[in-house]
Amino acid sequence: MLGSRGLGTVHGLLVGSVSHQVLRRAACPVVLVRAVTDGAVAEGAVTEGASAPRGREVVVGVDLKHSCDALLAFAFEAAALRAAALRIVHGWEPPIGSEYMASPAVDGSAGDLSAADRDAMDTLLAAWRERYPTVEATTVLVHAPPPAALVEASAGAALVIVGRPARHWPLGTHLGPTAHAAVHHIGCPVAVVPHD
């Protein structure tokens, strides 16, 4: 678990340099808990001796093009421990020039997602739902950029879980756009889970 106390002057950039480096480099999941300057407890935080918030939602962002096992394992376990519902969010942007560009979904839902995407999500979750039968897991397939979809879905959540590529790039590890948006713009605790 890692505290957050960004001291920058840019509104919304809530993560300090030490927290940012740990989130980028840690080989294990890291939970970022917001600091509150007036002595109040950050939204969704657990104080010493208290149990985790119960009944509030756990939200996880997934990308159907990449392995999600590490994320889903963490998410289902977190939801089970909190006796909370789990919402699995997949943000989707159509390829430039595709027929989907001309007719976006009216309600921002899965209306224009391919049947293959919906089937992939159902297949991905089947084993996890069987393993965690007490967790009420729902999916949200949104026609929106993944970072924006996850930030919007986080309202009222007790915990948001996002992945970070574990592989190294020429200039070192990085958070990726969705994890970056989550740690800078989501107020509740955010778990960053490295994955392949």
UniProtKB/TrEMBL annotation:
It holds the Pfam family Usp. Residues 2-34, 57-194 form the UspA domain. InterPro entries: Rossmann-like_a/b/a_fold, UspA. Belongs to the universal stress protein A family. This is UspA domain-containing protein. It comes from Kitasatospora putterlickiae.
